[in-house]
Specification:
This protein is an alpha+beta fold. It is built from six helices and eight strands.
Length: 157
């Protein structure tokens, strides 16, 4: 698993092309030749860019679901809705298909935000709103999600 770090801003052109910021492109260099999968986020109005290796690992998990269980089929359909294979061109640009531009309400300014092993692509205004903390108490969320994890013997997570 490749860990991706950083938050980067850029502009989208009229055709839906984004110039991948150099530090992000450098981190994803090993994935450039294999390509990427771009999809709708399940929980947020943004897009998720999966390096092909990460996508294949996710598909291995999903392929274990029993398709004779209706909920599993419904999940698979929704999870893969709008999925597109994309590549970074020789100039370092990523073309976002129009249906995904529309889904994520991408207009002019875009934020690439690392999410461990994938990259989220947000309209800048929606990204700022999502991290503003108005709808979630981050301290409570951090305690609930990470509070019981302690992998070290020193008591520090």
């Amino acid at each position: 698993m490749e860990t991706i770090v950083g938050t980067y801003e850029c502009k989208v052109d009229a055709k839906g092309r984004l110039l991948l910021p150099a530090p992000l492109k450098k981190q994803m260099a090993t994935s450039l030749q294999d390509g990427f999968v771009l999809k709708r986020s399940v929980f947020q109005p943004c897009l998720e860019l999966y390096p092909m290796e990460e996508w294949n690992m996710m598909m291995q998990k999903i392929n274990k679901l029993n398709r004779f269980v209706k909920k599993n089929n419904d999940f698979i359909r929704r999870f893969t809705a709008g999925v597109k294979l994309v590549e970074i061109d020789a100039l370092g640009r990523l073309l976002i298909p129009k249906d995904l531009v529309s889904f994520a309400n991408i207009s002019k300014d875009v934020v690439f935000s690392s999410a461990v092993n994938i990259v989220e692509i947000w309209d800048k205004d929606l990204y700022e709103k999502s991290i503003s903390g108005e709808d979630v108490d981050f301290a409570d969320l951090a305690e609930e999600v990470m509070g019981n994890i302690n992998d070290n013997d020193n008591g520090i997570s």
